[in-house]
Design brief:
single chain; 2 domains; globular; four-stranded antiparallel β-sheet; Jelly Rolls; Hypothetical protein af1432; alpha+beta; 10 strands; six-stranded antiparallel β-sheet; 312 residues; 21% strand
């Protein structure tokens, strides 16, 4: 019958996935969209005002739980609870406490705006990682650990969201480098190295064309070092944002402990000793200390006297 639609369980009009969430378009009509969003645990959701104040957005918790982060307090929402915005100005943040499923209704089309930009960016990341077999899932690993470090440093809300997105897309600028440079089987030549040092700038330019433009300043700084020896601008100390300092250390650790075509991965203990020796010159000591604590908590690393000596 015209105008009457049935969709079986598990079906949807369209679907887009990223590492931490899945968004499905269930129905649309006359500008209104009904979506279902599945989000992994410990992820931050940002609710922002729309261009038109008349837009209403409605979120119903189907499964899981999340916390509304209001000042120093938290209000827990569980299955059956809901929240919505109408004539809303500003930003609010929620954090998933477990894997969470939301029914999401918007009175303006939103799916394609979100899905296309996320899909395009993720395709770039995947293309970069396909160029170099050895960096497969590098962005996700840096994303996961950087988020944990940031939270232990007390970073919340929009700043935490910036860390998570910047960590995931930090190497996206490598899409503009040739396959031979990104996936080369030998150490880069001096000429190739100069091109590699441009990828943070390329990355900033790419994300600035998307809804994630606000992470550009972090991406462009993720290879800077405290003593000014990094690139592309040779920034020093507090000129480098805390968000970039977090990602730079986690990125360096993951690079050290991952095989490359021209060298084998370092053992975790060896990488930690090397990073310890570089704290306060290349890397932020507070970030390093919290990073090591996380590895210990997760059973990835057992401290030894060598590390204690380096830290002293």
């Amino acid at each position: 019958m015209k105008g009457f639609f049935i969709e079986k369980s598990g079906g949807s009009l369209e679907k887009v996935s990223q590492n931490s969430a899945t968004l499905e378009l269930l129905a649309r009509g006359d500008g209104t969209e009904i979506l279902m969003q599945e989000i992994k645990a410990n992820k931050v959701i940002q609710v922002v005002s729309q261009e038109s104040s008349s837009v209403m957005e409605f979120f119903y918790v189907l499964d899981g739980s999340l916390a509304w982060l209001k000042n120093s307090e938290e209000e827990i929402l569980q299955a059956g609870d809901y929240f919505y915005t109408h004539h809303f100005k500003g930003k609010e943040y929620l954090k998933t406490l477990s894997e969470t499923k939301l029914l999401y209704v918007s009175t303006q089309p939103i799916f394609h705006y979100i899905s296309k930009q996320i899909k395009d960016l993720m395709e770039m990341v995947n293309s970069v990682e396909k160029k170099d077999y050895y960096t497969h899932s590098h962005g996700k690993r840096v994303h996961d650990i950087s988020g944990k470090v940031a939270q232990k440093l007390g970073i919340t809300g929009e700043r935490l969201e910036k860390v998570l997105y910047a960590a995931l897309f930090h190497d996206i600028g490598k899409i503009k480098l040739s396959d031979n440079i990104v996936g080369g089987h030998s150490k880069p030549t001096a000429e190739e190295w100069e091109l590699i040092k441009m990828h943070p700038i390329f990355g900033k330019e790419i994300v600035e064309q998307s809804f994630l433009r606000y992470i550009g300043p972090i991406i462009v700084q993720h290879h800077e070092r405290l003593d000014g020896s990094g690139y592309p601008y040779g920034l020093k100390g507090e000129e480098i944002s805390l968000e970039a300092r977090i990602i730079s250390l986690v990125d360096a650790y993951d690079a050290m402990t991952t095989n490359r075509s021209y060298r084998e991965a370092k053992a975790v203990e060896e990488a930690i000793v090397e990073l310890a020796a570089l704290t306060e010159t290349k890397f932020d000591k507070q970030v390093y200390d919290i990073f090591v604590d996380i590895l210990i908590e997760e059973g990835e690393y057992r401290p030894s006297e060598d590390i204690d000596d380096c830290k002293r």
